[in-house]
Structure formats: structure tokens, C-alpha cells
Design goal:
Layout (H helix, E strand, L loop, with lengths): L1 H38 L3 H28 L6 H13 L3 H21 L8 H6 L3 E6 L2 E6 L8 E4 L9 E5 L1 E5 L1 H4 L5 E4 L3 E2 L4 E2 L4 E5 L7 H15 L6 H24 L2 H11 L2 H20 L2 E3 L2 H7 L4 E5 H5 L5 E7 L5 H12 L5 H12 L8 E6 L3 E6 L2 E6 L9 H13 L2 E7 L2 E9 L6 H10 L4 E5 L4 H11 L3 E3 L4 H12 L4 E5 L5 H6 L2 E5 L5 H6 L2 E3 L5 H36 L5 H19 L15 H18 L3 H12 L4 H34 L9 H27 L4 H28 L11
Helix pairs in contact: 1-2, 1-4, 2-3, 2-4, 3-4, 3-9, 4-10, 4-22, 8-9, 8-21, 9-21, 9-22, 10-21, 10-22, 11-21, 13-14, 16-21, 21-22, 23-25, 24-25, 24-27, 25-26, 26-27
Length: about 775
């Protein structure tokens, strides 16, 4: 049964784009021809034209009514059919023609609101491998992927998609499994370890021993999940139909009453004419289409009216982590060097070698070194070792970067690196030179700058529960959830588990799901409203979603929800006011004071009023949104860029404190304190003072006055106080050529305190101020 029904639905969707505009053109033409004929005295021709327009509208109206009844709903079309038939029966052809035009207009608007992009998950299918390289004896042959059987030995070349599930046949494999887990960090699989289909070979070629056919493999399962989730999504009741459920019985009751009072069918038809729910047929679609148009102006594509209506009253938000709440691009958070080794040298060696690597962590290290303006040396004989990292010659010395095996009697400083990585949920890239461990680079995927503000806006817009789903480990997932104040987090989730979680949440509430990767496509399809971060080229998730963000800005989710809530509210208001006026007119018609033609004209007046009101959804509301002038936005980008560079140097303050704690009387500690003071005087404090005098006054207007920046100005004062205190300590130490024992306790408190204050202050500015700027310009 499902296949014929699907074919009929596809055929209907194919006819709809041209049928409804044609119906509107025909009924409008019939009405105008009749008006012209009536004006010149050809009443017979006028009646014929109006009758034809009415008759043309009855046929599709009957079909729409039958379809609604077949689906178990008494839609707004039933009253339209009764009124159209009634006007023909009592020869009120003008009224019938007016109703026909209103009905056709409403259906055309509704069709525009529901013009939806294909949900066939074309991108998922395009990503699926079609061929595999199979060993046959000593030869290698290319075969269709559906010919691969369990036990076969395949060769997976660099850059190829793993065609089927299996395990590494020998050596090691480096895989980009973002399509499966959403995580941007590559994973290494050793000999005998399992490999899932759909991942991309990000390293050298490796052998794959097949454990499952293509149909039984992981990637095929993802495609099936997305299809099933879309097919099994529960049907929703449109806003107009919910109102029609009680409006219809009331209209029929009044029509029957009119017939009894007047003793004529004309009175009943007059009631049905003014009862024709044009506020539902017109005002609701106009408000919905206006909301969709408003959303498109801010880079949010809402595929149909149902999605906008559901988005407007959603109460649960489900978020992916990587690429949605976080940036999806690892960054260097710290460089830790072995004793007597310069951290800048560690970074320079690592970045010089990593220039030859396509690994996402290597790209982050190189980018960080270039921002520090380090001079990088082109490496020689560089090669990537799966499961280890890079090795090569830099400045005539052999350098290794990556997951190096630590010696059994490892240095004590490495314990601090391991502890820091665990606490910060960071990845470690160890750096060795000539076989000696020199340092480590810590990397992590940072939180999006606009994430905290966006989630606060979403709660304000009506979301009462916020949940995170991620394929990442529990530790970093919980940290992100804690910072953002999420209600629940599900970590280490497979695509199938994500779908199950979304379905569980959707059973108890109207849900939105926000994601950006192909692995999110099934979950997006399962949610009441799926929202895809479409700017990153994750076409599969975009195809499966109801809402697509065309820019890489999380705050657009809050914009979309605010617009949807306002548009839905205007639609409800327009429908309620319009139906209230219609009920009054129905009462007048029921006692015989309003004939059908006059009732149709009165209904047109009501329609104009509610449509004008519905068009307010085009303007939108700025409540909850903060806009800044372009000149202020330029300032925000300038100071954000400066602060990012300062953040990369903040470790200097903590490193100095560590050195003062370990060797307070050494000349090295005094030199480090002098270097820190120079950093504060020459870079940090001037930056903070410029913010105070240039940036804060500029953004005060957008934030509602100078009081909004008062607490941050107080932070500037505290930063300046602590900086001057460090300067006083340096002056005292220089007078004795060493840091005195009586200075240590206060100096350590000042240094560590300043480091903590600056990290907090930078985070607050990024969240409260810099997030106001267009992040698309940051790239």
C-alpha cells in the first residue's frame, strides 16, 4: 500500500506548483468578467461568469475536503464547499464567485508556505561509495560495492570513503569519521581494530578485511534511519484546522437556526457565506508566509508553514555539540615545554613539521604559530605515521609530533601535561627532537562565542528544556553542558542512539533539533523541527531539516524561533479577530438582515483587515535582538581580534607564577617577571584602556545605556590595579636583584589572580559584546 500512496503523493506535489496559481487566475478572471458584464448591464453574462467561477472552485474544494476527511480531520474546506454549493443552489452567484476567489487565494498562499525542498537525502546517497578495490590473488580489481562479501580483503586508498564495515588488515589507519560521529578530530585504528563504513581515509592506504556487506554496514544503516525517521514523523494538525474543529459546528448550528427563523434556504446560505473561514484560509497563511519571508532575510530558510508553526511553540531544544555549540575547529590552548626549553621553540618545531600534514590538529598548530609570527622552517623527509603522527627533519634535526609513546621513566613535567589535558578535555600533541621529549601542545574545540547568549535567548523564547547529543566523550561533553547550563547531556551517541533520544523527547514535547553534520541527518528528520547549520556544506543534514541556517551563526536559531513565535502569534490573533467578526456577521445574517452577496462583501472587508494585520509579521520584532551600527561592529571586530592575540599570550602570566613558586630567588624568575610586566604595560593595559574609552561608549546605546557596561568597567579597574601591583613587586625585586621571600606569597596571589580575572573578563566580553558582531566576518 505504501508504494502507490507514495507515488500519488509525489504526483500531487508535482501538480500543486502550477494548479493552484491557475485556479486563482481562473476564479479571479471569472469574478472580474462578471463585474464588467454587470456594469454594462449584461446581467445574464455576469451570472454565467460568476457561476462558472464558483463551479470551477467546487471541484478542487471537494477534493481537499475529501482528503481532509480521509486523514481524520474536518478542515476549513468543508465550510467553503457548503457555502459554494449553497450559493449555486439559491442562485447567489456573485457571493459564490467571491468565495471561490478567497478559497483559491488561501490555497495558493498555503502552497507557497509549504513549498518544501526534497527530503530524499541526496547528499547521503552521493557520499555512499559505489566501488571497492578488492584483492584477487596478487591482483587488485575494482568491483561494485554490492559485490563485496564478508571475508574479502580490500584496499582503501587515501581520500576514499570506507565502503563497508571491517577491520584493519595490517598496519594502521587514520580516519576522518566526522560523517559518523560529527567529531572533527581524526582517529587512528591499529591492525585488527574495527572500522565503520562512511569514514574517510585521512592517511595512507590500508588493507580492510570485510566483516559485513554494504547493505549490512554502518553507513547504509544511517541512510535507512534518516528515511525511516522522516517517514515515521507523526503528522501535525495545522493551526487553521485546529480552529476549524470548533468553528465548523458553530457555523452549521447558526445556519440551521437561520433556516428555521427565516423559513428560507437563502438565510442559511447567507450564514455560510459570512462563515466562510477566510481569516483561516487567508490570514493564517499570510502571517506564516510573512514570517518565512522575514526569516529568510536573516539567513534562515524555513521550508514550510508547518515547520514555522511548530517552531513557534516548541518547548524542548536538542543540540549537537561539535560544529553546533562548539566551533568545530580545534585551537591551541597551551604550549607546555620541558624544563630549560623555550615554549616558543617547541611550538616552532611542531608547526614547522606539521606544515606537511593535512591533519586537522596539525592545521591548528600551524595556524597558531603563524598568529604568533614565528618563523617556520620547511621540513624535509616528512612522513605521517598512522597512530603516531608526523616525523621529519627540521633545521637538520629529527622532529616528531603527535601521539608519541612516553618512556617508562617519563619526566615529572609530563604528568602535569597529562593532568592538564584531562582537566581541560584537551588533545595532546607531544613534540620530541632527536628522540628527546621537548614539550607538548594542548588543543581543544572551543565553545562558540555566541552559544551562551543564544541559549539564553532560546529559553526566553519558550524552550523549557535544553539537551545536548554528541558522539564525543563524556568529559568534554559535560564541561560544555555545565558552562552553557544545559538540562541534560547524552555523550558517546551513535546516529541510531541519537534518533532514539530525539524520539523519546518528541513523545512528550514539541522538539527542535539543531545539528550540522551528515551524522545528524537522521536525528534532524526525527525531530518535530530539524534545524541544520547549512553553511558548512553538510548537505545531507540540510536536506533532512525543516529549517536551514545559511550562515555559520548559532544565534540565527534564536532569531528563527523569535520570528516564528511572533508570526504564529499574529496568525492566531488574526484568526481570532477575524472569526470573532465573522460570528457577529453570522448572527446578523441568521435573523435575515444580511443577504448572501452583501455578506460576501462584508466578509471581504473582514479579510482585508485581518490580512493587513497578518502582514505585520513581515516587519518582525527586535525584542531580544541586539543590533549595532556598522561602525560599532568594526570596533567589535578590531578589539575581538586584538583580544584573541592577547589570549594566546596569557599563559605568560601563569608561567611566571609557576616559576616564582619553583625558584623564587633565581634570575630566571626575575626575568620572567620583567617580561610579564612589559606585556602588561605595552599590550594588555593599553588594550583595556582603549576598550574603556572607545568600545564601551559605542556599544552602550545597543545595550541600553552605560550601566550595562559598568561591571565590565569595574573589571578594567581591577586589571589595572593588579598590573600596577605586579609593577611594584618588580621594582622592589630589581632593587635587590632578586624576588624577596617576603614578596612571594602576595606576588603569587597577584599573578594567579590576574590570570583568573583576565580569563573571566575575556570570556565575558566575548559572550556579551563581541558576539553582537557578525561572526561571518571573523573567518
Amino acid at each position: 500500500m505504501s508504494e502507490p500512496r507514495s507515488a500519488q503523493q509525489h504526483a500531487a506535489h508535482g501538480l500543486r506548483p502550477w494548479f493552484e496559481p491557475t485556479l486563482l487566475a481562473v476564479t479571479t478572471s471569472a469574478l472580474l468578467i462578471g463585474v464588467i458584464a454587470w456594469a454594462v448591464g449584461a446581467t445574464g453574462t455576469a451570472d454565467a461568469a460568476w457561476m462558472a467561477g464558483t463551479a470551477v472552485a467546487i471541484v478542487p474544494a471537494l477534493a481537499w475536503m475529501a482528503l481532509a476527511l480521509w486523514r481524520g480531520r474536518t478542515g476549513v474546506d468543508l465550510i467553503a464547499v457548503l457555502s459554494l454549493g449553497g450559493t449555486l443552489a439559491v442562485h447567489e452567484y456573485l457571493a459564490g464567485s467571491l468565495i471561490a476567489v478567497m478559497l483559491a487565494s488561501g490555497q495558493a498562499l498555503d502552497s507557497a508556505a509549504q513549498c518544501r525542498a526534497s527530503h530524499d537525502l541526496r547528499a547521503l546517497l552521493e557520499h555512499a561509495p559505489r566501488f571497492a578495490h578488492r584483492y584477487t590473488g596478487d591482483a587488485l580489481e575494482t568491483v561494485a560495492v554490492d559485490q563485496v562479501r564478508a571475508g574479502d580483503l580490500l584496499l582503501v586508498s587515501p581520500g576514499e570513503v570506507v565502503p563497508v564495515d571491517g577491520w584493519v588488515g595490517g598496519g594502521a589507519a587514520v580516519l576522518d569519521e566526522a560523517v559518523l560521529t560529527g567529531e572533527s578530530v581524526h582517529v587512528e585504528r591499529g591492525a585488527g581494530e574495527p572500522v565503520r563504513s562512511g569514514g574517510v581515509n585521512a592517511g595512507p592506504a590500508f588493507d580492510l578485511r570485510v566483516s559485513a556487506t554494504a547493505e549490512e554496514s554502518t553507513y547504509a544503516g544511517i541512510v535507512r534511519l534518516a528515511r525511516q525517521a522522516g517517514a515515521e514523523r507523526a503528522p501535525v494538525v495545522r493551526l487553521a484546522d485546529r480552529y476549524a474543529a470548533w468553528f465548523l459546528p458553530l457555523a452549521l448550528l447558526l445556519a440551521g437556526t437561520a433556516w428555521l427563523i427565516t423559513g428560507s434556504a437563502v438565510g442559511a446560505v447567507a450564514v455560510l457565506v459570512v462563515a466562510t473561514p477566510c481569516p483561516l484560509l487567508l490570514a493564517v497563511p499570510v502571517a506564516v508566509v510573512s514570517g518565512m519571508s522575514r526569516a529568510s532575510r536573516v539567513g534562515v530558510i524555513i521550508r514550510d508553514g508547518t515547520a514555522l508553526e511548530n517552531l513557534g511553540h516548541a518547548t524542548t531544544g536538542i543540540m549537537d555539540k561539535t560544529g553546533t555549540l562548539t566551533a568545530g575547529r580545534p585551537t591551541v590552548v597551551d604550549v607546555i615545554a620541558a624544563p630549560a626549553v623555550d615554549p616558543e621553540e617547541v611550538l616552532r618545531l611542531a608547526a614547522s613539521l606539521d606544515q606537511a600534514s593535512p591533519h586537522i590538529l596539525a592545521e591548528a598548530i600551524v595556524a597558531h604559530a603563524r598568529r604568533q609570527q614565528l618563523t617556520l622552517t620547511p621540513p624535509r623527509d616528512a612522513s605521517e605515521q598512522p597512530g603516531r603522527g608526523m616525523t621529519g627533519i627540521v633545521d637538520g634535526r629529527r622532529v616528531e609530533v603527535g601521539k608519541l609513546a612516553l618512556p617508562e621513566s617519563r619526566p615529572r613535567w609530563t604528568d602535569a601535561v597529562l593532568n592538564r589535558a584531562m582537566l581541560d578535555a584537551a588533545a595532546i600533541a607531544w613534540v620530541s627532537c632527536e628522540g628527546e621529549l621537548r614539550g607538548a601542545v594542548l588543543l581543544r574545540d572551543p565553545l562558540r562565542r555566541d552559544a551562551p547568549r543564544t541559549l539564553r535567548r532560546l529559553r526566553k523564547a519558550g524552550l523549557r528544556r535544553l539537551v545536548m547529543l554528541t558522539g564525543d566523550r563524556a568529559e568534554p561533553a559535560r564541561e560544555v553542558a555545565t558552562v552553557l547550563g544545559l538540562d541534560w547531556v547524552h555523550a558517546e551517541q551513535t546516529p541510531a542512539e541519537k534518533v532514539a533520544r530525539v524520539r523519546d523527547e518528541s513523545e512528550t514535547a514539541t522538539t527542535i533539533m539543531v545539528g550540522d553534520g551528515v551524522n545528524d541527518a537522521p536525528a534532524l528528520a526525527a525531530a518535530t523541527v530539524g534545524i541544520a547549520m547549512g553553511a558548512r556544506g553538510a548537505t545531507a543534514s540540510s536536506e533532512a531539516a525543516d529549517v536551514v541556517l545559511t550562515s555559520d551563526r548559532l544565534d540565527r536559531v534564536a532569531d528563527a524561533m523569535s520570528i516564528a513565535r511572533r508570526a504564529r502569534g499574529i496568525a492566531v490573533q488574526s484568526a481570532a479577530v477575524g472569526m470573532g467578526l465573522s460570528i457577529i456577521a453570522m448572527g446578523v445574517a441568521a435573523v435575515g438582515w444580511l443577504p448572501p452577496a452583501a455578506g460576501a462583501l462584508l466578509q471581504e472587508g473582514i479579510d482585508v483587515a485581518v490580512i493587513v494585520n497578518a502582514l505585520r509579521a513581515l516587519r518582525g520584532s527586535h525584542r531580544g535582538e541586539l543590533a549595532v551600527p556598522h561602525s560599532t561592529e568594526d570596533l567589535l571586530h578590531r578589539f575581538a581580534s586584538e583580544q584573541e592575540k592577547l589570549r594566546e599570550t596569557l599563559h605568560l602570566i601563569r608561567d611566571t607564577a609557576d616559576l616564582v613558586s619553583e625558584a623564587p630567588g633565581s634570575t630566571k624568575a626575575l626575568a620572567a617577571l620583567s617580561q610579564t610586566r612589559a606585556f602588561l604595560d605595552q599590550r594588555l593595559v593599553p588594550h583595556e584602556r582603549a576598550e574603556e574609552t572607545q568600545l564601551y561608549p559605542a556599544i552602550a546605546a545597543a545595550l541600553g545605556g552605560s550601566e550595562a557596561t559598568a561591571t565590565m568597567s569595574r573589571m578594567h579597574a581591577e586589571i589595572d590595579r593588579l598590573s600596577r601591583r605586579i609593577g611594584a613587586h618588580l621594582k622592589l625585586a630589581e632593587s635587590h636583584d632578586r624576588i624577596g621571600d617576603d614578596q612571594i606569597e602576595d606576588l603569587l596571589a597577584t599573578l594567579y589572580g590576574l590570570h583568573a580575572v583576565l580569563r573571566l573578563h575575556f570570556t565575558q566580553e566575548e559572550e556579551n559584546y563581541f558576539a553582537l558582531a557578525d561572526t561571518d566576518r571573523d573567518s
